[in-house]
Amino acid sequence: MAHGANVRQAGDQIEQLLGEVRSMVSPATWDRIDRLMRSIVELYGAGLAQLMNALDAPGADASTVRQRLLADPLIASLLLLHGLHPDDLATRVQQALERVRPYLGSHGGDVEVVATDEDSGVVRLRMEGSCDGCPSSILTVKLAVETAIREAAPEVIRVDVEGLTDHQSSAASAEPANVNGAEPAWVTLDLNGGVTRGRLAATQVHGEHVVVCNVDDRLYAYRNGCPSCGAAIAGGRLDGDHLTCPGCGQAYDVRLAGRAIHTRDLHLDPLPLLEDGGHVKVAVPAE
C-alpha cells in the first residue's frame, strides 16, 4: 500500500505497467482495458466524493459520519470489497430485514433469521404469517427480502426461505418482476412531490406502467392494469383501502396485495415497494 512519499513511486509503477500492457495487446483490447480502468477510478472517485459529503454535512461528528458512511451503499460495498466493513454478515442481514419489515407487515407476514453462514454465503430465513395467502404477495415479499439482503450483503450466494407451503415455494421460484429473463432491480420512482393520503398516482419506469396508492400514509405499488377488464386502474377511485376500477367497477383491497373484494380469484399485480431515505423504490425488470 502506498503512503506519503511512496504515492509518487506507486503512480510511476502503475504508469509503467500500463505502458507495457498497452504494447502487448491489440488496440481493441487496450480500449477495453482503458475503459475498465476508467470505470474503476470513477467508482473509487464516487466513493471519495461520498466520504467528503459526509464529512461536510451538518453535525458531522465522528459517530454521525460513521453511521452515514456505513449506510451508503457505495461506501459499504467498497469496505466489503477490502474486508474493512465493521459489521459482520449476521448484523447486516438483520439491518436489511429491518428495512423491509414495514413492507412485510403490509402483506400480513414477517421474517426471522434462522442462520447465517459466512463461509458458504448462505442465509436461512423463516417466513412468519400467511402473507394473506395470495401467491403474488408471497412472490413480492420473497423478492423484497432477498433483494434487501443482497444489497446489504453482496457476498451472500443463496437465501433459503423456510415456512412456505409447497404451493408457495413452487410459486416463489419465479421472480414476480422477472419478465423475458430480465433480472429485477430496485428503481426510484418520480412521483412529483409524493402521493398524499387517500390519493393515487400513475408513473412509468423501465417500460412498466405503475400506480402508487397511499392508504393511511403507507404506500402500495401495483402494475397499472385491471385483471378483470384491462383498464388502467390509475383512473379509478380510492376509498379507504378499496381501489375501484373505472372500467368494470371491480373493487380491490390495496392492503391485501390487491385482492378483489367480490371475486377471490382476481387480484392486482403488486410490485415490491420500499421507502428508503425519502425515496420510493419499486422492483421492476432491469432494462
Tell me about this structure.
It is a single chain. 39% of the residues lie in helices and 25% in strands. The protein has 287 residues and is α+β, with helices and mostly antiparallel strands. The chain folds into 3 domains: 6-81, no CATH class; 89-176, GMP Synthetase, Chain A, domain 3 (2-Layer Sandwich); 185-285, Rieske Iron-sulfur Protein, CATH 2.102.10. The strands form 4 sheets. A 4-stranded antiparallel β-sheet has the order 5-6-7-12. A hairpin with a 5-residue loop joins β10 and β11. α5 packs antiparallel against α6 (135-152).
Kindly list the characteristics that best describe this protein.
Rieske Iron-sulfur Protein, four-stranded antiparallel β-sheet, alpha+beta, GMP Synthetase, Chain A, domain 3, 3 domains, 287 residues, single chain, elongated
Mean pLDDT: 80
Shape: elongated
| Uncertain residue segments | 170-181
Number of helices: 7
Q: Give the N-terminus to C-terminus distance in angstroms.
A: 38 Å
CATH topology group of the largest domain = Rieske Iron-sulfur Protein
In CATH terms, what is the architecture of the largest domain?
3-layer Sandwich
List the helices and strands and how they pair.
Blueprint: H1 6-24, H2 27-56, H3 62-71, H4 73-81, H5 89-106, E1 109-117, E2 122-129, H6 135-152, E3 158-162, H7 166-172, E4 184-188, E5 200-205, E6 208-215, E7 218-223, E8 237-239, E9 242-244, E10 251-253, E11 259-260, E12 270-271, E13 273-276, E14 279-285
Helix pairs in contact: 5-6
Task: Please sum up the structure shown.
The chain has seven helices and 14 strands. With 287 residues, it is of the alpha+beta class.
